[in-house]
Amino acid sequence: MDKGEGALRMEKFQESMYQLIVETSTKLPKDVRRAIAKAKLRENAGTRAAMALTTIAENIQMADENVSPICQDTGMPTFKIKVPVGVNQLKMKEAIHRAIAQATKDGKLRPNSVDSLTGENSGNNLGDGVPVIKFEQWEKDYIDVRLILKGGGCENKNIQYSLPCELEGLGRAGRDLDGIRKCILHAVYQAQGQGCSAGFIGVGIGGDRSSGYELAKEQLFRSVDDVNPNEELRKLEDYIMENANKLGIGTMGFGGETTLLGCKIGVMHRLPASFFVSVAYNCWAFRRLGVKVSPETGEIQEWLYQEGENVDFAKELEKAAQSVPAEGREIVLEAPLTEEQVRQLKVGDVVRINGMMYTGRDAIHKHLMDHDAPIDLNGQIIYHCGPVMLKDENGNWHVKAAGPTTSIREEPYQGEIMKKFGIRAVIGKGGMGAKTLAALKEHGGVYLNAIGGAAQYYADCIKSVEGVDFLEFGIPEAMWHLRVENFTAVVTMDSHGNSLHEDVEKSSLEKLAQLKEPVFK
Ligand code: SF4
């Protein structure tokens, strides 16, 4: 069999890679669905966590039906490819680049590749180091391609420990299995809800700083249901699954029974002087798939991660529709908002918003600090969101995916901007810090937590795109003027100085401290 240069049909291979990208971005794998369905069963009906999981289930269902991105942050496309000797990797790389650009053009991926110095978005998900493609040769007679789309919100919650170290709540973590145990528990604690919990973690023990992280990410390619062949690590994985879920962080950090959906641990040798524990955190929108491809025809021979039952979320949702309403009050808000309306809101209220909201992320917040706003923002709502948008042939914009982005990045600016322009509410995910909380109190503002990753659910709430400013900042960073209906979020920081995020962080730290005593020798 000739697998030399030119033997692999690149046109067909490109088509196969396009299919893999679209499927990964729009359909969660079966093992991930089962883990989410199990979490849903564990939460008591009527709680905020149950409400968040129902929204997540609805979102998964909509992404399936619309063949649209599960989350608007389609992440860093990372390919791991094993090829038989002789297959031309340079040509494969080119084909993957073309498939990525096409998927971006078709709205299956958000333009996510930004020049680190100029801030310019390449617009097609290509750029220096993007996408990540790692090749390995092997003796088998097929090509194995695995793809993970890991978003920025959870990527920012990755963490690396250098043992020995002191850990908040857990004390000293030494260079042994128990020290490793402490690091992993701490990694889950420090992520809180900011990586769109409930999450999956991959852990790499050993290596150097870069190979340790590499090993941690490698673990995310394991099936959620597999069993670690290393008996010590199997026990550690089981321990972490049981005990991390005692922290009570819950879905989106709203509190609840499920904080972690999966834990996979790998080990490698290290230098005598270094002992790293690296943790890769992945949100519930755990998009990774794989295919076996023919090295001659370039066709997909088999899809990976397909074993086991497929959860039908449509049925799950029928059951949820009959369940009791979420805890706390439910309040309908018509934007723009008055100070009086906002001051009546309290942590735990569920709000349903109608009217206008305006997207704003990092570039806009930075810009508004020392410039005027292009529109009157008095009483308005800012939505921390970088949507996936498509322009039709008549020049009209359509929202393809529009979930919240991590709000804490705007912490240096948020309070000041709210006061300067009279903004009454901000919507995002993961909560904000003390500076914003103080500004909400002083000015009469509120922070609303939307369900992270529920990009289809929220896109459906957007009834029209009524304008856009700052398009020069790139599609995700532009200010989109959106008219919404029945946009659901939870008040997690109010104008009375209360923050659900602070409360959950405090209580989870207390629970973490209960896990301080050594468990493994
Ligand atoms: S679900 Fe949350 S963390 Fe994951 S990619 Fe989407 S916004 Fe980012």
Automatic annotation (TrEMBL):
Catalytic activity: (S)-malate = fumarate + H2O
Keyword Iron: yes
Cofactor(s) annotated in UniProt: [4Fe-4S] cluster
UniProt GO MF annotations: 4 iron, 4 sulfur cluster binding; fumarate hydratase activity; metal ion binding
InterPro entries from the UniProt entry: Fe-S_hydro-lyase_TtdA-typ_cat, Fe-S_hydro-lyase_TtdB-typ_cat, Fe-S_hydroAse_TtdB_cat_sf, Fe_dep_fumarate_hydratase
The Fe-S hydro-lyase tartrate dehydratase beta-type catalytic domain, residue ranges: 298-503
EC identifiers of the protein: 4.2.1.2
A Pfam family the protein falls into: Fumerase
Keyword terms of this UniProt record: 4Fe-4S, Iron, Iron-sulfur, Lyase, Metal-binding
Taxonomic superkingdom: Bacteria
Domain Fe-S hydro-lyase tartrate dehydratase alpha-type catalytic: 15-291
BP GO annotations: generation of precursor metabolites and energy
UniProt subunit comment: Homodimer.
Function: Catalyzes the reversible hydration of fumarate to (S)-malate.
Family (UniProt): Belongs to the class-I fumarase family.
Protein known as: Fumarate hydratase class I
